[in-house]
Write a structure and sequence with these properties.
By secondary structure, the chain is an alpha/beta fold. It has 10 helices and 16 strands. The structure holds threonylcarbamoyladenylate and magnesium ion.
Length: 338
């Protein structure tokens, strides 16, 4: 099938809404990363998403909505804390996991009796959902295991020939996927870190528990709160290692292990020897979030074999960058002083 990349004009948004209403899958922009969207109520359409992504069937999809009425149609027994989160952070980059209503097919929820729901702030995404008049199931638009796409070109690289259309809405402003949370009374459990940080969540919950899948390896057969965390993720072809500590320690370590296929992934302000080939990914956590996935794709394009990466801060959205880098590195971390 031919994959068309379409500018996000009103006409093209309407055309993509028609495709979705007919049961097709379309690549769409959101403020976090691009998604692969289909009618969340249509089992066949949802199965096409899993096929296009080569995604394991037990990994649930996030359902995207355009207003609070849709939330009440899709979820049941919504705790007050969840409503407060939605009121405070929607439209925006946060997904709430709630008991699902019968309207959500099990194919969409990966067999679970819960569903992740999000109201995105990206105008193209919201306009598309409004025109469809349907909730849209949409995982990140990468092939399963690859870095998430933050431009229409990234989506094209992974999905060419697999879906009929991609709506091009420019690059994603946040750059990492939404924060995913579930609720235990008025306690929030953080399943995946994103732009909405632990401190942000503390303003509405009595406590925020960081699930252990955020920072630790989860074995493949373990029963996990968020199935996505047990799969290998964001992995470039290059062998990535995180180096935690000062830039001086970093430079010494990489100089010792430097060879033709070696690259350093460093902050913009880092000053290291010219004999080390470097790719830079920003200074502030916000910049790093915006650039991380493009940079992970770039290191494959330039043919890097081994990558040593500076360890991002774990503050604010930094925790999300760290979580994605840790996975890209297969949890390999070298610590200064060890
Ligand atoms: O920002 C985002 O969330 C993007 C854009 C397109 O909205 N979507 C996205 O979807 O990242 P995906 O499918 O790549 O990641 C969804 C994550 C997975 O780790 C999945 O396991 C988890 O959310 N998740 C979804 N529904 C869940 C549920 N009912 N219970 C627990 N975890 C759930
Ligand atoms: Mg994903």
């Amino acid at each position: 099938m031919e994959t068309r990349v379409l500018k996000s004009t009103n006409e093209n948004i309407k055309y993509c809404a028609e495709l979705i209403k007919r049961g097709e899958v379309v690549g769409i922009p959101t403020e976090t990363v691009y998604g692969l969207a289909a009618n969340a109520f249509n089992e066949n359409a949802v199965m096409k998403i899993f096929k296009a992504k080569k995604r394991p069937a037990d990994n649930p999809l996030i359902v995207h909505i355009a207003d609070m009425d849709m939330l009440r149609e899709l979820a049941e027994d919504i705790p007050d804390t969840a409503l407060e989160v939605c009121k405070k952070f929607w439209p925006g980059p946060i997904t709430v996991v709630l008991p699902k209503s019968d309207r959500i097919p099990l194919v969409t929820s990966g067999g679970l009796n819960t569903v992740g729901i999000r109201l995105p702030s990206n105008n193209v995404a919201r306009e598309l959902i409004r025109i469809c008049g349907l909730p849209l199931a949409a995982p990140s638009a990468n092939l399963s295991g690859s870095p998430s796409p933050t431009t229409a070109n990234h989506v094209f690289d992974d999905m060419n020939g697999r879906i009929p259309a991609i709506l091009d809405g420019g690059s994603c402003s946040v750059g990492v996927e939404s924060t995913v949370i579930s609720f235990e009374g008025d306690i929030i459990r953080l399943l995946r870190p994103g732009k909405i940080s632990v401190d942000d969540l503390k303003t509405v919950a009595s406590d925020v528990v960081v699930d252990k899948g955020v920072l630790e390896i989860i074995s493949n057969d373990a029963s996990v709160k968020s199935p996505g965390m047990k799969y290998k993720h964001y992995s470039p072809k290059a062998d990535v290692t995180l180096i935690s500590g000062s830039v001086e320690f970093f430079e010494q370590y990489v100089a010792k292990h430097n060879s033709a296929g070696t690259y350093a992934l460093i902050f913009d302000s880092d000053d290291i020897s010219d004999s080390i080939k470097a790719v830079r990914f920003g200074d502030s956590s916000e910049q790093q979030a915006e650039r991380i996935f493009a940079v992970l794709r770039e290191i494959d394009k330039i043919g890097a074999e081994r990558v040593y990466a500076r360890c991002p801060s774990k503050e604010g959205v930094g925790l999300a960058v760290y979580n994605r880098m840790l996975r890209a590195a297969g949890f390999k971390v070298i610590k200064e002083g060890d």
